[in-house]
Amino acid sequence: MSPSGYGFKTTGLTMDSYDALMAGTIYGPIVISGDSRRSILNKLIEGRAGNMQRSTHGEQEGISDDEIEVIKIWVNQGAMNN
To answer: 2 in the Ramachandran plot: left (φ > 0), alpha (ψ -120 to 50) or beta?
Structure first.
């Protein structure tokens, strides 16, 4: 996500590096290392964020179920920079 995106303007979130992702937003972290159930990142990509739907933006393909599972495992294992 580029700094020109709507999410960045609203929250300060950028995901162009590990450090930026782990820095989170002006509201706090989006990755809770070791806990994908509470991690905002996981809630967003799994479609568990309130009224927000898991969707694509423009013509981009959405994230696959396999990719979601990999991220879930990564977070549950501590979200290491590896």
So the answer is: beta
Q: Report pLDDT digits (tens) over 41-59.
A: 999 999 888 765 555 555 5
Q: What is the DSSP letter of 5?
A: S
Closest CA to 1 of 58, 75, 76: 58
CB 32 within 8 A of CB 22: no
Domain locations along the chain = 6-54+62-76
The string of DSSP letters for 13-72 reads ---SSHHHHHH-BTTB-S--TT-TTT-HHHHHHHT-STT------TTPPPPPHHHHHHHH
